[in-house]
Amino acid sequence: MTDHSLPPVTIANCLGEGIVWDERDQSFRWTDIEGRKLFRLSWPDRELTETDLPQRLGSLALTDIDGVILAAFEAGFAQFAIASGEVEWIAKPVSIPGVRFNDGRVDRQGRFVAGTMVEDADKAGGERKGTLWRLEADGSLTSLVEGIGITNALCWSPDGATMYHADTTTGALNAYRYGETAEFDRVVRQFTPEEGWPDGASVDAAGDIWQALWGGGALVCLEPTSGREIDRVSLPASQITCPAFGGPDLDILAATSAWTDLDDARRAAEPEAGQLFFARPGARGLAEMCVRLG
């Protein structure tokens, strides 16, 4: 049974995304993409700090260097020193207008994988110009999936052999055989517009997938082979964006949300849109992997 007794963090993120748990300092970190801010919430005292960013940050990776994250900024990959704001660019693969980086996560081998999305199809010259990129240890890039509308739901099975990824525009959560390449295996779940659109996702220690539903107001837990819904956490905002397990025992499920694209009436009806939500669903997560830079 899901415990909903944990109160949310009252913060109005325009487009909260990319949340991760850092077990080293017991904190959640996430981005407000449109607000161009990086947030840190210490646990359990809930002290909130924010950092201004030089570009929109689609997703982030923890690293082995204290105070430095690996950032998937809108234009590409960079090291970002949180205290000083110093940016050290690694690669800028986005060369198409109307395209930016979006969802990303570190694979079980410690490599940052992040993908792009089409914001403006007219400028981009089409609706499927996104690419899923893996940043290798030597700074080179590997293209894993091409022809994407909006990269989302990036996560891996506990053994790292299966990658999950959604192109939100299709409504499909897909599974890939994962190694040096990513080979399409199957559709895990085809969501209908009435259910919501697949946004961020996370895998728990049992291998089940916790999928955020944009427009669906929920996190749903899916059995990875059949795609069957086995649990649901309903939340008081329609646009749920990204989940992450955290807390000392990795049993607290946090979820970012957004108010962007809500008209005035919808936003008035959803005063908690943009907040950071928490639940205890009775599952435990996997420790977030770090990228080794040092």
Automatic annotation (TrEMBL):
Protein name listed in UniProt: L-arabinolactonase
Ranges where the SMP-30/Gluconolactonase/LRE-like region domain occurs: 15-258
Annotated a divalent metal cation binding sites: 17, 152, 199
Residues bound to substrate: 100, 102, 120
Family: Belongs to the SMP-30/CGR1 family.
Cofactor binding comment, as recorded: Binds 1 divalent metal cation per subunit.
Any coiled-coil regions, as ranges: none
InterPro entries on file: 6-blade_b-propeller_TolB-like, SGL, SMP-30
EC numbers on record: 3.1.1.15
Keyword Chaperone recorded: no
PANTHER family to which the protein is assigned, alphabetical: REGUCALCIN
List of catalytic residues: 199 (proton donor/acceptor)
GO biological process, one term: L-ascorbic acid biosynthetic process
Enzyme class: hydrolase
Keyword terms of this UniProt record: Hydrolase, Metal-binding, Zinc
GO MF term list: calcium ion binding; gluconolactonase activity; L-arabinonolactonase activity
Cofactor section: Zn(2+)
Source organism phylogeny: Bacteria, Pseudomonadati, Pseudomonadota, Alphaproteobacteria, Sphingomonadales
